[in-house]
Amino acid sequence: MPHRRLLTALTALALLPAALVAAPAGAAPPAVAHGGARGARVADLGSLGGAHTVPLAVNARGQVVGRSLTADGRWHAFSWEHGRMTDLTPDADSAEATDVNDRGQVVVRITDLAGGPPASELVVGRRTVPLGEVGAQLVNTRGQVAGHVLTVDGSQGTNANPFVWTRGTRVDLGPVPGFGGPDSRLVDLDDRGRVLGIGLGPESFELGYLWSAGTFTPIGDPSAFGGNAVVDLSDSGWVLGTAYEGGPFLWRAGVQTWLGLPPGVGEAVPVAVDEHGHAVLNLRADPAGTERAHLWDGTRYVPLGPADAATHATALDDRHRVVGSFTPPDDPSPTGAFLVDRGRFVELPAGVDGVVTAQAIAGRYVMGTVLAPDGSTHALRWTVR
Asked: Among candidates 5, 70, 40, which has minimal Cα distance to 272?
């Protein structure tokens, strides 16, 4: 689905040494131009009265949702649009808006501070649709919602597995048939209603799976030692992940394609995949080395950003635009936000001092945060050309 949400890539389980992984063939990647973000406008979203606002999703209309601290110290779900922040849960003790689609439908999750199950709802304009005692997370363009539901099993205790809600009907996926564990966790939901998840595979290693219309399909070889971790699903069916044996891969319709690693690289963390099977990953020579974002363009890795700067990608869209954060080579203390668009690496202006990160992109809009020197958290939205 469109990468409008804040995507947190799973840490790679382990990778083969670079010397054992074939590097992609082809000439050296083209140079990436650098410069400022001409025409980029930034807006500070403000808050609901407290010192922290955390954005969690942005849509192609520029609407941003997330959570914001109130003056009395409660987290409330918010929606920000046209310069105005709206409190979606004015009576809640703890709540957040976790996702928004391009129709403006917002997923809200309200947490019981006493420890009970969360309650979720779908906000559609001025109407609120209750989703029940579930932990909703994602909404696609069709208005389908996915999240986790808790079930009580007499022998296994309380288990959590994904669900999909469609126009008032909830389908609980339950345990993955043939897997070794009673639980699995949601990773992504695409616009066709397919679910990408991770469960405990038949060999007791974590393993990705794809659920579609009641059918579960393991990602990769279920018997492979170490299993794998999957991080993203595109609407065209591409899955991006990394395996204990083999490293980063793309998977589609049962075919697994190994990406390999460039020479000298020993660690890779996959981030996102687009509709064409292009992917963005964060690579480094070793855990103590400099991290650099790379775009896999279908045949080779293209490094993103200045060669002497650290870059960390967080999202990718279907126009090969990548956003993330970078650390300038001349001063390692600040962190800035970047956008790579048509091969040009540009810094996004923040307007606020602090550690700046761009976290998601949708259409003309980029979402991010600033951790200010006073400890406050600011939510930002950039409008780019």
From this structure: 5
Question: Cα separations (Å) of 135 from 30, 194, 243, 282?
Answer: 44, 18, 28, 30
CB of 89 within 8 A of CB of 110? yes
Residues 6+ apart with CB under 8 A from 232: 3, 7, 187, 188, 196, 239, 240, 270, 271, 272, 273
Radius of gyration of the chain (CA): 21
> How close are the terminal C-alpha atoms of the chain, in Å?
22
What type of residue is 307?
A
CA gap 80, 65 in Å, rounded = 6
Given a cut of 80, whether residue 168 has pLDDT beyond it is yes
Query: Distance between CA atoms of 150 and 264, rounded to whole angstroms?
Result: 44
pLDDT of residue 12: 31
**Strand, helix or coil at 20?**
helix
Q: How many CB atoms lie within 10 A of CB 229?
A: 22
Please state, as a whole number, how many other Cβ atoms lie within 10 Å of the Cβ of residue 44.
14
> Over pLDDT 70: what percentage of the chain?
88
Q: In the chain, where does DSSP find H-type helix?
A: none
Convert the pLDDT of each residue in 29-45 to its tens digit. Answer: 333 333 444 569 999 99
The token pair at 66 is: 């997330």
Residue 161 above 70 pLDDT? yes
Q: What is the mean pLDDT of residues 149-154?
A: 76
Taking a C-beta distance cutoff of 8 angstroms, is the pair 16, 245 a contact?
yes
User: How many angstroms separate the CA atoms of 63 and 57, rounded?
Assistant: 8
